Amino acid sequence: MEGMIHFQAIQQAAQRLAPHVLQTPCVASRTLSQLTGAQVYLKFENLQYTASFKERGACNKLTQLMSEPSAVRGVIAMSAGNHAQGVAYHAQRLGLRAVIVMPVFTPGVKVERTQGFGAEVVLYGQSLDEARAHAYELAQAQGLTFVHPYDDEAIVAGQGTVGLEMLQAVPDLETLVIAVGGGGLIAGIATAAKALNPHIRIVGVQTQRFPAMVNAMTGSHHPLGALNTIAEGIAVNSPGQLPQAIVGQHVDDWLLVDEGDIEQAIVLLLDIEKTLVEGAGAAGLAALLRYPHAFRGQKVGLVLCGGNIDPLLLASIIERGMVRAGRLARLRVNTRDVPGSLAHITTVIAQAGANVNEVQHQRAFTLLAAQNVEIELVLQTRGRAHIEEVLAALKTAGFDAGLC
Questions:
Q1: What is the C-alpha separation between 347 and 381, in angstroms, rounded?
Q2: What does DSSP say about strands 98-102 and 120-123: parallel, antiparallel, or unpaired?
Q3: Quick one: fold of 7-52+156-320?
Q4: Which CATH architecture has domain 54-146?
């Protein structure tokens, strides 16, 4: 069928990848299963050498290119990071020159790792579309072969080996939940999964800020790319034509998640599974957390598709997650501005079992009487119930205290 790929292409890709790409584990998560009400299985693509599934498609494409004379001049790719690293790594392994065009918002950790694989990195554009257009210009000017991140049969077949491995590891999976950007991953997985089990349910997940594929497949008109997203790996305004043809045949449902859902999923995977994922890698779990009724009682496979996250962004997400969980709290205490008041407050807090992270006195920016002071404290606590205990202790000690 035109605009489709055959299962045989995915099987052949698996043979090409076997010596060079890790067959990652697909294992059950008891704790996440308890939290979501589904039987959750995680596919750890963040354990790949480049920390992303993207090297599967890159390896398959570049291996095939080696038989063509045009490969001698090298390859060029456009990517926000993971495809870049996959192409750079396998080009280095095969002795090919690699030029990578990346949008200027790409996290530094992805830029550095791409350069570490020997690629020439060009930062250009405020979006993937702008970076792609520049990459095409450079390809023509320098005689390089453009390696598309998702709109290419060899790339889609390579990504499809993820689904092949998942069904080989857990043949009775009922539902697969896949993060979607340009569509290469879900197109490949859906092709493999439906070939092995025609009744399996395929669910695509996008962010509310970049729902291009959802719009294309459902006829909806969600606004596109109005803001940045922590799932920059799937921040795509123009999904691929080949993936669209495939997912139109094989994908059963579409879901949207917001930034808070993704942040929560990142923190849960770090806390529960002790595994690090980027925003796109957490999108599948974010969907389970936001729509548990859609998966309850089912045997669900999630792909942790990438683990390349900026350390500063991760630190911010962890801190915000602690606030949501009630393990960090900001309190306001009003008291007389006299020596010993702060010592008394911190003593009460310590006796209640909380720890003080930050203290700030507000004397000018307050409506209190001039002889009073408003003190803001950031505390480490054991959770929301503990916060209430601390507030009760402060009030019992005679202080006017509350959450900020």
A1: 15
A2: parallel
A3: Rossmann fold (3.40.50)
A4: 3-Layer(aba) Sandwich (3.40)
Same fold across 7-52+156-320 and 54-146: yes
pLDDT in tens, 41-80: 999 999 999 999 999 999 999 999 988 776 678 999 988 7
pTM: 0.89
57, 121, 125, 51: which is closest to 87 by C-alpha? Answer: 57
Beta strand 253-257 pairing with 201-207: parallel
Side chain identity at residue 339, one-letter code: P
C-alpha triplet 6, 11, 13: angle, nearest 5°: 95
**Could you tell me the residue ranges of all domains in the chain?**
7-52+156-320, 54-146, 326-403
Contact at 8 Å (CB) between 210 and 237?
Answer: yes
Query: 183's torsion region: left (phi>0), alpha (psi -120 to 50) or beta?
Result: left
Extract the tokens encoding 158. Answer: 């390579």
**Nearest to residue 99, comparing CAs of 234, 108, 110, 117?**
117
pLDDT of residue 67: 82
Structure tokens at 151: 């709109």
Q: Which of 371, 235, 359 is nearest to 306 (CA)?
A: 235
* Sequential DSSP letters for 104-151: TTS-HHHHHHHHHTTPEEEE--SSHHHHHHHHHHHHHHHTPEE--SSS
Q: Which residues share a beta bridge with 367?
A: none
249, 154, 147: which is closest to 194 by C-alpha? 249
Nearest alpha carbon to residue 87 among 64, 110, 119, 65: 119
Joined together, the tokens standing for residue 324 give: 């949501």
Coil, helix or strand at residue 42: strand
**DSSP-derived pairing of the beta strands 372-380 and 355-362:** antiparallel
How far is 155 from 343, CA to CA, in rounded Å?
A: 63
Structure tokens at 80: 């926000």
Q: What is the C-alpha separation between 378 and 348, in angstroms, rounded?
A: 14
What pLDDT digit, counting tens, does each position of 195-224 carry?
A: 999 999 999 999 999 999 999 999 988 888
Give dist(CA 194, CA 71) in Å, integer: 34
Per-residue pLDDT tens over the stretch 128-161: 778 889 999 999 999 999 999 999 999 999 999 9
Domain 326-403: assigned CATH number = 3.30.70.260
Look at residue 257 and tell me whether its pLDDT is greater than 50: yes
Q: What mean pLDDT is reported for the chain?
A: 92
